[in-house]
Amino acid sequence: MDACLPIGVGRMSFQRVREFLTKELVDVKRIPKLSPQIIVGISSDTGRLLKEHNVKNVKKLSQQDSRSLSQLTGIGRSQLEKWIHVARILVAISEGNVRDQKKIVFSGLDNVGKTAIIQTLMTGCVPVSVNQQKTLTELGPTEGLRREEVTLFGWIQAEILDMGGLEQYRLKYLEEKGEVFGQTDLLVFVIDAQDYGRFNEALDYLNSVLDVYSSLGGIPYTAVFLNKWDAEVESPDHLERLELLRKNIAKIFRKVRSDRFHVDNTSVFEAEKLFLSFSTVLRKISNVLPVIEGILREYGDLLGSRDLMLFDDKALLIADYTSNYQKVLSTTTMRMIWLRETLTNNYSLKASTMTVELGPNQIIVCKPADWEDKTVYIAGVLPSTEKSGVLNILGEELQPWIRNIGII
After folding, report:
1. CA torsion angle for 403, 103, 220, 205 (degrees, to 10)?
2. Which of 34, 133, 213, 231 could be a cystine partner for 219, CB 3.0 to 4.6 Å?
């Protein structure tokens, strides 16, 4: 029998959370009032313990702070973190507070490289050839508003808005307000880092866009990409101009009382850097990432590794637990993913575990996990390949969380 879903909740969203439940449910709207024991892993004894501290149903559990509840009950904080996040997902679905599609807006002046960034990200982390460089640099200004539906992090369905930056379009967007900017989950504002003469114009437009979001009820997390960054032109004068630009960007966000932003240098010709920059901001629109990172930390301790990463098939970094080899692990894994995706798509060959030896007792292991029609990659620096089998178990524990990565 089909589950009774609230208006606005996609059936796909509910299908994904079934593996968190101990039994089949027909009326999803009843979930908030049910005992926490409907969540996998919460035994009757644990349920009674939670009830003693007034956590008598799923709704109450979703409102808890893991640190405080751990101190009260003696239950491990990492385990409570998982149960609380499951409860929040269930409550969001039951109350219809779920959008199956996220909205990501790319905004900025004309000729700053918004379309080139989007095309590079959607292609996957592939080394850019000379011909591709020529194509990307010859892209003309986007006319009006372009929409593209994509899948990110394997299970985040997103609509990307590429907003043409010519003045006539910018004025139109600001007039339409909610029709264009409404319900934005993530704003990527792009500035040409080498076009000094338009810095003030870009800042004025950024200020206007943020004012629109304020009038709509809230500013989404914002990434400001200083694009067309080139290490070869890092003269003292250039660096001084960029530092002043960063300070002026920070002033604008202080003015609108938002600290939910960050500024990064980007270039479509530095694919790994661009992908890591976009991954960083994309992670801001998922509330289950603390759980995923916690699981990586637990398995890192088990494997004797301080470096574990999780990527999607586009080489976007979903989550990581790193300290020693962050740059070398991310760069190497991205190239491994590109190689495997090329072999799969062009030659119907599927490589399994891929390894690179860094030194004695230091081996990069990259293991693909194929789930349904999706692929994610688990990578880490391990003391030996003998422990790589544990990555399969890690993948099994991560799977339900990654499948729900975009729900709330």
Report:
1. 150
2. 213
Residues 276 and 130 in one domain: yes
Phi and psi dihedrals of 325, rounded to 5? -125, 40
Domain identity same for 211 and 256: yes
Residue 323's pLDDT is 85
Q: Which long-range contacts (CB under 8 A, 24 or more apart) does 33-37 make?
A: 33/57, 33/58, 33/59, 34/58, 36/61, 36/83, 36/87
SS3 401: helix
Instruction: Give the span between the Cα atoms of 40 and 86, in whole angstroms.
Output: 9
pTM of the model: 0.88
- Overall number of domains in the chain: 3
In the structure encoding, which two tokens stand for residue 57, read together?
């149903």
Token digits for 351?
């490589």
Q: Per this entry, what is the length of the chain?
A: 408
* 2-45: pLDDT as tens digits: 455 444 444 445 566 788 888 776 577 888 999 999 999 999 99
Q: Three-class SS of residue 365? A: strand
289 vs 283: CA distance, rounded Å: 7
CATH number of domain containing 279: 3.40.50.300
pLDDT at 5: 42
The residue among 285, 316, 342 that closes a domain is 285
Domain boundary (236, 259, 285) is at 285
pLDDT at position 8? 44
Is 325 among the domain residues?
A: yes
- Closest CA relative to residue 314, chosen from 343, 353, 275: 275
Alpha-carbon distance of 73 to 86, in angstroms, equals: 19
Q: What CA–CA distance (Å, rounded) separates 396 from 143? A: 45
Instruction: Copy the structure tokens of residue 214.
Output: 């304020």
Same domain, 235 and 278: yes
Q: Which residues contact 312 (CB under 8 A, 6 or more apart)?
A: 152, 153, 154, 318, 374, 375, 376, 377
Amino acid occupying residue 363? I
Q: Which spans in 3-65 are helix H?
A: 11-17, 44-52, 58-62
**Given CA atoms 60, 62, 67, 71 in this order, what sign does their dihedral have?**
positive
Identify the domain containing residue 208 by its residue range.
Answer: 101-285
The runs of H, that is alpha helices, within 234-288 are 236-255, 271-282
Q: Which residues lie below 8 Å from residue 188, measured CB to CB, with a gap of 6+?
A: 104, 105, 106, 107, 114, 117, 222, 223, 225, 278, 281
